[in-house]
Specification:
single chain; alpha/beta; TIM Barrel; eight-stranded mixed beta sheet; 8 strands; globular
Length: 244
Amino acid sequence: MKKEDLKYYAKVHSIESFGTVDGPGIRFVLFLQGCHLQCKYCHNRDTWNMNGGDYKSLDEIYNKIINYKNYIYPNGGVTVTGGEPLLQVHFLISLFEKLKNDGIHTCIDTSGMVFISKDIQDLLSLTDLILLDIKHIDNEKCKALVGVGNTLELNFARYLSDNNIPMWIRQVIVPGFTDSKEDLLKLKEFILSLKTVERVELLPYHNMGAYKWKNLGETYSLENVSPATSNDIERAMKILGIFS
């Protein structure tokens, strides 16, 4: 596909028309195809390959959203996730321009692992809420867990804060990887340095997506890691303290 066509077409993995866990209210959730990270705990392993999924046009996606407007408006909206949705920034600018004209709340679920280009800035100016998935607060541990360090995503969080863009901070609690007291206290310190954090969500690690790795002939390296329990989450929230 030509570069100039990227704002009119998206590589889509799937669509959820009645989401309730990806932002406020009832959400139309668009899962875009493609991701440049290699999170060991990823439960959507089949979204990584940019050659997967199906091309769908801007009009097709927009019209489908409008069909559900009575359900998602005014207290819900549209959330775009993935994969990593910011890899398709040109399409999202076009889509969000149309949604903002209709008064529909826009949200992006992202790792923030991108350079803050002019296109990213333009998209963020059209975005009402960012669900920012902090992979790991420690740079070296982040590299080991997802394949790259955390410099870009922490800079992304600071940009959101400096430009008054609301965010919910998310982190997956993976026992033995992201749940040490030292790291959680560092996460708390970082969050306190940000001005626009409205909510913090600790998501329990689960292995329900392990079969997708196996279906693709890939090794699921966290095979022997137990899913996070409610006690694990409560302990982490207690360490964070102010968010419990």
